[in-house]
Amino acid sequence: IEETLVLVKPDGVARNLTGEILRRIEAKGYSLVDLKLLQADRELLAEHYAEHEGKPFYEPLIEFMESGPIVAMRVAGNRVIEGFRVLAGTTDPTTAAPGSIRGDFGRDWGLSVQQNLVHGSDSPESAARELALWFS
Ligand code: GTP
Ligand code: MG
């Protein structure tokens, strides 16, 4: 059985969408293994987003992720890494498909960083690395 890291980003927590997001994960048949609410510090976020260092949206992204509490979840299930990415929808909330989390609830605020509600690991390697980081 595979595991993935799901984050409800600060916009999702602030908009009281944590329950709705978890409901969709559970409705799909995935299992919640661990969950916590935390304020992420810069060190953790820099490690988490190391692949984006140097990109124009990197600094605003880190600032956004520092701006409020995050809900981190360890979620298990068959092909859950790919499956949660489908539940989440594509990165840009404007074009994410209706029926997905980002498609149904994501808004384009015209800010310098896309506030797209959730994060999900994008590969088995990322999932292992990110779960170790957030649930050490
Ligand atoms: P995550 O699940 O959050 O990792 O999203 P993703 O895998 O769909 O996107 P990616 O890893 O490429 O980017 C991480 C995050 O950076 C995204 O979720 C956005 O919040 C932000 N981001 C990515 N690309 C852009 C971009 O081109 N412009 C801006 N402003 N933000 C971006
Ligand atoms: Mg990503």
Which characteristics define this entry?
single chain; 136 residues; 4-stranded antiparallel β-sheet; 4 strands; binds guanosine-5'-triphosphate; binds magnesium ion
Notes on the protein architecture:
- With 136 residues, this protein is an alpha+beta fold.
- Strands 2-3-1-4 form a 4-stranded antiparallel beta sheet.
- The chain is built from 7 helices and 4 strands; from the N terminus they run E-H-H-E-H-H-E-H-H-E-H.
- The radius of gyration is 14 Å and the shape is globular.
- It is 41% helix and 19% strand.
- The two termini are 20 Å apart.
- It has helices at 10-14, 18-27, 42-48, 58-66, 80-88, 101-105, 124-134, and strands at residues 2-8, 31-38, 70-77, 118-120.
- Bound molecules: guanosine-5'-triphosphate and magnesium ion.
- The site of guanosine-5'-triphosphate (GTP) has 10 residues, from strand 4.
- Keywords: ATP-binding, Cytoplasm, Kinase, Magnesium, Metal-binding, Nucleotide metabolism, Nucleotide-binding, Phosphoprotein, Transferase.
- It catalyses: a ribonucleoside 5'-diphosphate + ATP = a ribonucleoside 5'-triphosphate + ADP; a 2'-deoxyribonucleoside 5'-diphosphate + ATP = a 2'-deoxyribonucleoside 5'-triphosphate + ADP.
